[in-house]
Amino acid sequence: MNLQRLRYFVAVAEELHFGRAAQRLHMSQPPLSQQIRLLERELDTALFDRSTRRVSLTDAGAFLYPEAVRLLAEADSVDRLMDQRRHGQAGTLRVGFVDSAAYEVMPRALSEYRRRWPQVDYELRTMSSDEQVKALRAGRIDLGIGRAAADPERVEATLVMQEPLLVAAGASHRLAEVAAVKLRDLAGEAIIGFDRRVSPSLHAVLAGMLGAEGVTYDPIIEATEYATILGFVAAGEGVAMVPASVRTFQPPGLAYVGLLEGWASVPLLLLTRAGEPLPLVAQALDVVSELYTPTT
Predict the structure, then answer these.
(1) Which domain covers residue 236, as residue numbers?
(2) Inter-residue contact 202 to 131 (CB < 8 Å)
(3) What is the chain written as a DSSP string?
(4) Are residues 97 and 182 in the same domain?
(5) Residues with Cβ within 8 Å of residue 252, at least 6 apart in sequence
(6) Is 296 within a domain?
(7) Cβ neighbours of residue 164 under 8 Å, at least 6 residues apart?
(8) I want to staple 157 with a disulfide (CB 3.0 to 4.6 A). Which of 29, 79, 149, 203 is the partner?
(9) Is residue 181 part of a domain?
(10) Domain tally for the chain?
């Protein structure tokens, strides 16, 4: 079905005059009459009764008119939606984010994004940094919020912040009695950490950081969510190294202790496909860059 011919039909049906319809459509009358005849041939039925004095709809034309109006409205709606998507005003932004980003960065950034572009929809998935890189390469997500970018040729990383690390300990643990500790103070402690199979990059960073201070990083319990990790810490099963934003999670029996080594931190990054053309993604980069000033 030729939508343009339907537009011609609707104009004639509403004007009931080929001359006025042609003026409305900014075209001459003969081509308009020809297009209506082609539509009637396509539908194998007459749509108008024509005489020298008047034009009227046939029963078939009267039946077609409301359907044609509805179809054209839907087609126009699709055009508008696609135009909005091209300009970043509509569409679905698929975001993968590390669990720790859910405590501060994600809620703040998403709230601002929704305020500016309320017609955009979201698919949000908790994923490790390594999983995000794979998902970006495979086209399963459009944007990642992670701690490491393992594929610099195909995944670009934009620094959001360099986030200090804290030590989480049970409220009755010896480390909870001081304001700050050194990394070497963790020697001999039972450590609870993020699953190394899910996030090998984070495991390697923490192992290297503690290893430089002579401390072995080999968690006795590993989990994929900080709520679980911190639950074990609060229960007295061990201590954990966590990004500072996680401290907003404060179950009973949990204390957060600073580290004296100022360099003990992990980056928080926005991860995108190299050369990503989606306006939805560019807008997210703009929002986060306005909300957070990267520091080193």
Answers:
(1) 164-265
(2) no
(3) --HHHHHHHHHHHHHS-HHHHHHHTTS-HHHHHHHHHHHHHHHTS--EEE-SS-EEE-HHHHHHHHHHHHHHHHHHHHHHHHHHHHTTSSEEEEEEE-GGGGGTHHHHHHHHHHHH-TTEEEEEEE--HHHHHHHHHHTS-SEEEES--S-TTTEEEEEEEEEEEEEEEETTSGGGGSSEE-GGGGTT--BEEE-TTT-HHHHHHHHHHHHTTT-----SEEESSHHHHHHHHHTTS-BEEEEGGGGG---TTEEEEEES-TT-EEEEEEEEETT---HHHHHHHHHHHHH-----
(4) no
(5) 171, 234
(6) no
(7) 243, 244, 258, 259, 262, 264, 265
(8) 149
(9) yes
(10) 3
> Would the pTM count as exceeding 0.85?
no
Does pLDDT of 144 surpass 70?
A: yes
| pLDDT score recorded for residue 26 | 92
30, part of any domain: yes
Residue 263 tokens read as: 């360099």
- Please list the residues that pair with 270 across neighbouring strands: 145, 158
Does some domain include residue 207? yes
Say if residue 184's pLDDT is above 60: yes
